[in-house]
Design goal:
The chain has 374 residues and is an alpha+beta fold. It contains 13 helices and 15 strands. It has two domains: 165 residues, Gcn5-related N-acetyltransferase (GNAT) (Aminopeptidase); 192 residues, Gcn5-related N-acetyltransferase (GNAT) (Aminopeptidase, 3-Layer(aba) Sandwich), CATH 3.40.630.30.
Length: 374
Amino acid sequence: MGTLTVHPVRNRRELKQFILFPWKVYKGDPNWVPPLIVDMKEMLDKKKNPFFLHSDAEFFLARRDGEVVGRIAAIQNNRHNEFHKEKTGFFGFFEVLRDYDAASALFDAAASWLKDRGLEVMRGPANYSTNDTVGFLLEGFERPPVVLMTYNPPYYLDFCQRYGFQKAKDLYAYLMTSDQPLPEKAIRVAESLKRRENVEFRTVNMKRFWEEVELVFQIYNDAWSLNWGFVPLTREEIDHIAKQLKMILDPDLVLIALVNGEPAGFSLALPDINQALIKIRNGRLFPFGLPKLLWYMRKINGIRVFTMGVVRKYQKRGIDSLFYVETYRRGVAKGHRWGEFSWILEDNVMMNRAAESLGARVYKRYRIYDKPLV
């Protein structure tokens, strides 16, 4: 098998190897959506990513006889631990060839780094937190991932189990297509609820974009605060995310709910830009990637409900169902043929019930794992 070593990323050359390694794992896989290399560089840059203003990470490479065979990040998310009063560490950006010894050595390296910092549990994958991409794909390998969702070879699940990881939480992705009419009951209930609660919807005002971001910031950190794994966004993080999403969002699919004129929640559905990114197999915008991206973005026919939240004051009143109904109507009116609602915690009864009431079905599952650091 050759000599196996694991070491931290030490220079720009090794960081480039860390970024480009997935192309070796997914060679020939038509469902893999290559990331843009420029985006990965920014995400891993400790001077540019605001995550590193409050937390830390170490990036590792595994080699056999000098050839890269795997990678992992060990992540100390101080915001998570302060909010949840835990000592949980995370692993993320995990990729490995079909080589369990290499996978085990990478997990060992991440676990050792986390234990040295006094952390007691290793959880993942999280790239870097629940505000980013999380989870290994468990079911639904026959289709490419949608925007900002994960994808991996099935053998990663086996490697996690062999290493001793246990399920922490499953995440659901629901699918609904435009040829599925909304159930009459769902429509009646929605209209009745809108009248009873005096709910109105408005779209985001792009001319007042940063004021809208401030409103969403306040809603998000309140609405999600009781959810498992939630990590409050900082001012720098929400601004960073907003700058990235502004380039791809459709203002008609960003909804703010008002109850008696007071902001009560928001929903953000994103065009599935992965339908365009999957065409850029080398992950590079230049010289040919950008024209290809712009061309295929015109052909996007699906959306993902990326995030949706109702402030605690107005929770358990059915406003989440209203968001789904309103998003479905607007998405179909714009010509989209399908929509994904993701991700939803397996035990979030209200959100799962809301999706199911519209006729949506779970078509993908993702898993987050835990392992005590003893």
